[in-house]
Amino acid sequence: MSAPSDNPDSTRAPLPESQPGIILRHLPRIEVMESETLLSGWSRVIRVFYRLFRRDGSVQTQDRDLLNRGDGVTVLLFNRERQTVLLLRQPRISAVLRGHPTGETIEVCNGQVEDGESPFDCAMREVEQETGHRLAHLIPLGDFYASPGASLEIVHLFAGEFGPSTLVGESGGLYHEGEDIETFEIPFAEAMQWIDRKIIVDARSTLALQLVFIRRIASDQAIA
Asked: How far apart are CA 58 and CA 32, in angstroms?
């Protein structure tokens, strides 16, 4: 078994102030013992052994197999003037295996953070590779655990404005990574309807669109 180099990031975000009736814990209830790598390929799977300090005072030893493929980024590209968003369609093997009628999902721009790369730099890189747009800046929307019970991945959400002036190349993604991406522009309101109609079924894309929609309502402005 390896040393706990596979352990989750120990950096903790500051806790919010307590609300009436809610007890916020300031001490970890889990103590990591050790871990081992089960699979190392396109993705990595580790098994972590740990102690859980239960609320009744007892201690329970547990183990979990976790996906450890690094952190991810999601970027929603919007055009403020036209009130549109840029979406991507691409084949996904997971969609095929789950019986999706076309095996293609409609998403916003997604990618994985490479070693030594910041989420911001990754987002800029992925946008240009997949859509051909080089954005002037990004708007952070937040960070979240992709699946805290099964994965170490934290996804960093951004939004960015695109237009004729940001287009510097072709879309489609990288051939050597197996990407075959089609991009298209639709009204923001229609994209929101596609969530309800289950045309957009990707969780990251749904969250990014809904976050921008909430901000749009809260600020009484157009997109973002």
From this structure: 16
